[in-house]
């Protein structure tokens, strides 16, 4: 066996451009990844941040790399090792950007630790109409910033000729306090059902990337008006920037149309309270946007800046993600500019009880779940089938009816039904109808898309009947 070639850190460092080739290190191993740069799923520019140096500080930020298939890819490019002296001197004190993340509730089912992404288990999700803060699903793209409420300032960019505002929390409390119950759902909720059909790119969310809270804060329209903004005739967008950022300093960002932001009836909030408490750190402390009826991605947390722009936010998450495509579109053919960003979400429902694979009592079954639709459209009915969709029964909707056009929150529902005699197993299915008579598609295949978003086919659970 040949002994590996030995390099110094200086040598590695001199290989940090396509002309000199691109080298990186992991532990004591050295890799020439020039040929991989263009193939990197996270994009060439991200990989290039590590060119000529160690991967650890970047991989600590993107925990997605802690998988064997990623290590296998890297192994193909190995060219040698760092010299033993280098190893000793370089015991990297990588400051872990996630070290300061808050402590989380052990009941949460973690889909990714760094950044933190987790959902409540189904059996807890519909225990309460209002999701308790500690088990509210969490979707972070980056480390959680640790913001000081005393020095926190929210920057509102004024219109030309108007005034920009720099609002402290106390300033924000001076606006009329508005409180509403809003369900927040991630575009990736139920993605795992899409990936079962065919691979998609994204976190494996089950049915729990959805939760409901009472949110209180200032109305965005009041704050924008104070800065001198008005509804203009041209199409415009309100852009939000978070105070969480990646190693390049790029902040999380998203936007919504100005018409929605300025409409008092749309009730868009700059929220500082969640279920009567200050926002928990994972959910945007001290201030986040809440956009009722709209996909979670626009509810920007740790809000730092609000501006009105002629174009949508240029953020990756507005333009290169959170869009829907035909099942025929793949990563070679996708044109992100060809599809609008997701705003209002389609009608959705899922079964939270019983669980897939469970053994149920032979006499009676109780089926429970949630249903919700975007844009303030109310859920008017949930149909449940015990035989895979051949016959249906109407479930009982819990919770109170909501104001017309402002059904921002989910309805929980349940059905108690006798188990048909002689059945050994049941294929339980649910589907919801909203007040525009939108319904859910019966299967995943026709709505499958490469990013696994907008997964809202009939939800199906298979259970065994106790003998
Ligand atoms: C995703 C490999 C360097 C940022 C991925 C994936 C692979 C990969 C295989 C897809 C993982 C999956 O979906 O299961 C590598 C290799 C690298 C490298 C071999 C070094 C040679 C970097 C660096 C950064 C980075 C230095 C950041 C500064 C990302 C991001 C994603 C990703 C953000 C997620 C993309 C998405 O979710 O669409 N990488 N990576 N990578 N990588 Fe890397
Ligand atoms: N805001 C910031 N600043 N950073 C983020 O990573 N994630 C978005 C949105 N706002 C995100 C953000 C996404 S995709 C969703 S679904 C919701 O926050 C999730 O909110 P939650 O973690 O409070 O449930």
Helix fraction, binned, reads: 10-25%
* Biggest pleated-sheet summary: 5 strands, mixed
Rg to the nearest angstrom?
25 Å
Question: Largest sheet, order of strands side by side?
Answer: 1-5-4-3-2
Task: Using the coordinates above, name the CATH class of the largest domain.
Answer: Alpha Beta
**Strand fraction:** 25-35%
Q: What are the salient characteristics of this protein?
A:
467 residues, Flavocytochrome B2, Chain A, domain 1, five-stranded mixed β-sheet, 13% helix, binds protoporphyrin IX containing FE
Explain the overall architecture.
It is a single chain. This protein is of the alpha+beta class and 467 residues long. The chain folds into three domains: 6-89, Flavocytochrome B2, Chain A, domain 1; 109-338, Sulfite Oxidase, Chain A, domain 2, CATH 3.90.420; 348-465, Immunoglobulin-like, CATH 2.60.40.650. It is built from eleven helices and 27 strands. The chain has a five-stranded mixed sheet. Strands 10-9-18-13-14 form a five-stranded mixed sheet. Strands 11, 12, 15, 16 and 17 form a five-stranded antiparallel sheet that branches. A hairpin with a 4-residue loop joins strand 6 (109-112) and strand 7 (117-119). The N and C termini lie far apart (62 Å). The mean pLDDT is 94. The structure holds protoporphyrin IX containing FE and ligand MTE. The site of protoporphyrin IX containing FE (HEM) has 21 residues, from helix 2 and helix 4.
């Amino acid at each position: 066996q040949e002994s590996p070639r030995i390099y110094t850190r200086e040598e590695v460092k001199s290989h940090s451009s396509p002309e000199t080739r691109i080298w990186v290190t992991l532990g004591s191993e050295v890799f020439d990844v020039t040929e991989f740069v263009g193939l990197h799923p996270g994009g060439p520019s991200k990989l290039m941040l590590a060119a000529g140096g160690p991967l650890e500080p970047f991989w600590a930020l993107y925990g997605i790399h802690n998988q064997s298939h990623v290590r296998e890819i890297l192994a193909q490019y190995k060219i040698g090792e760092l010299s033993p002296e280098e190893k000793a001197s370089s015991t990297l004190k990588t400051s872990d950007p996630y070290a300061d993340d808050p402590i989380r509730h052990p009941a949460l089912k973690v889909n990714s630790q760094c950044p933190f992404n987790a959902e409540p288990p189904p059996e807890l999700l519909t225990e309460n109409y209002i999701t308790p803060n500690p088990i509210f699903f969490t979707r972070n793209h980056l480390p959680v910033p640790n913001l000081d409420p005393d020095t926190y300032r929210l920057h509102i960019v004024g219109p030309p000729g108007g005034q920009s505002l720099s609002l402290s929390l106390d300033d924000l409390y001076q606006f009329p306090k508005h409180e509403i119950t809003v369900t927040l759902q991630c575009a990736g909720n139920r993605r795992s059902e899409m990936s079962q059909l065919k691979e998609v790119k994204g976190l494996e969310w089950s049915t729990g990337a959805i939760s409901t809270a009472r949110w209180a804060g200032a109305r965005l329209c009041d704050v924008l008006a104070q800065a001198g903004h008005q509804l203009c005739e041209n199409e415009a967008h309100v852009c939000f920037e978070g105070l969480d950022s990646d190693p390049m300093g790029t902040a999380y960002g998203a936007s919504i149309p100005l018409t929605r932001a300025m409409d008092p009836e749309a009730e868009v909030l700059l929220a500082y309270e969640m279920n009567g408490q200050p926002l928990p750190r994972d959910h945007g402390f001290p201030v986040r946007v809440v956009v009722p009826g709209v996909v979670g991605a626009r509810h920007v947390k740790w809000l730092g800046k609000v501006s009105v722009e002629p174009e949508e936010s240029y953020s990756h998450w507005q333009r290169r993600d959170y869009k829907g495509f035909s099942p025929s579109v793949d990563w070679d053919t996708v044109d992100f500019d060809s599809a609008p960003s997701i705003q209002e979400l389609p009608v959705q429902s899922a079964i939270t009880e019983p669980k897939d694979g469970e053994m149920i009592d032979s006499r009676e079954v109780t089926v429970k779940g949630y249903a919700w639709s975007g844009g303030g459209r109310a859920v008017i009915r949930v149909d449940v089938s015990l035989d895979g969709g051949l016959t249906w029964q109407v479930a009982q909707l819990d919770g109170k009816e909501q104001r017309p056009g402002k059904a921002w929150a989910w309805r929980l529902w349940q059905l108690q039904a006798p188990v048909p005699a002689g059945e050994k197993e049941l294929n339980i299915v649910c589907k919801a109808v909203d007040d525009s008579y939108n319904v859910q598609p019966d299967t995943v295949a026709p709505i499958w898309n490469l990013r696994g978003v907008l997964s809202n086919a009939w939800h199906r659970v298979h259970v065994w009947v106790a003998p």
